[in-house]
Amino acid sequence: MKKILVLIMVVFAVATSSFAIKPVQYEIFYKLNNESNFNSMARYLNANEDQKDQLKYVFLKTEEKMKYALKKEDLMAAEKVLYFNLGNIKSILTEDQYKKYLMVVNVSINNIDNNDEMIANNNIK
Q1: Rounded mean pLDDT of 6-19?
Q2: Rounded distance between C-alpha atoms, residue 59 and residue 33, angstroms
Q3: What is the pLDDT of residue 2?
Q4: SS3 93
Q5: What is the sign, positive or negative, of the torsion defined by CA atoms of 57, 60, 63, 64?
Q6: How many Cα atoms are found within 13 Å in the side-chain-facing hemisphere of 52?
Q7: 74 to each of 23, 27, 29, 35, 83, how far by Cα in Å?
Q8: Per-residue model confidence as pLDDT tens digits over 52-89
Q9: Cβ neighbours of residue 12 under 8 Å, at least 6 residues apart?
Q10: In the prediction, which pLDDT does 124 show?
Q11: Cβ(54)–Cβ(27) under 8 Å?
Q12: 81 with 29: CB under 8 angstroms?
């Protein structure tokens, strides 16, 4: 039992440490509130109606808090909003659904990084 708990803590620590991101990368949390993106995410996660309602609420609150944090250019507050999102989403979803959610967020953040690098590399040439 202790090994499982330690493993879960390590996975969570690794996943959250990968979320130390630049302010421009927080835009994913605005896109989650978009109706088509939300529906796609809910379908991918196979969320039931109760989960959808709760996800919608968390995404809305995340967007509000993130706008406020980035407007003030407060990266610490933005990080807190990130943890607010992850903590609440984790309490809503099953373990498998939460893993899928983390994967989507990580891939989206990494795509933003890769696009920035591609644009920077194209401007250098």
Answers
A1: 53
A2: 6
A3: 60
A4: coil
A5: negative
A6: 13
A7: 9, 15, 16, 28, 15
A8: 999 999 999 999 998 888 888 888 888 899 899 999 99
A9: none
A10: 45
A11: no
A12: yes
Judge whether 29 and 63 are in contact, CB under 8 Å: yes
Q: 22-38, pLDDT tens digit by residue?
A: 555 677 777 888 888 89
Per-residue confidence at 10, pLDDT binned at 50, 70, 90? Answer: low
Show the CA angle centred on residue 114, arms to residues 90 and 84, nearest 5°. Answer: 20
Question: Distance between CA 121 and CA 8 in Å, rounded?
Answer: 38
Q: Where are the alpha helices (DSSP H) in 32-94?
A: 35-45, 49-71, 75-92
Distance, CA of 117 to CA of 88 (rounded, Å) = 32
Q: Both tokens of residue 96?
A: 């498998």
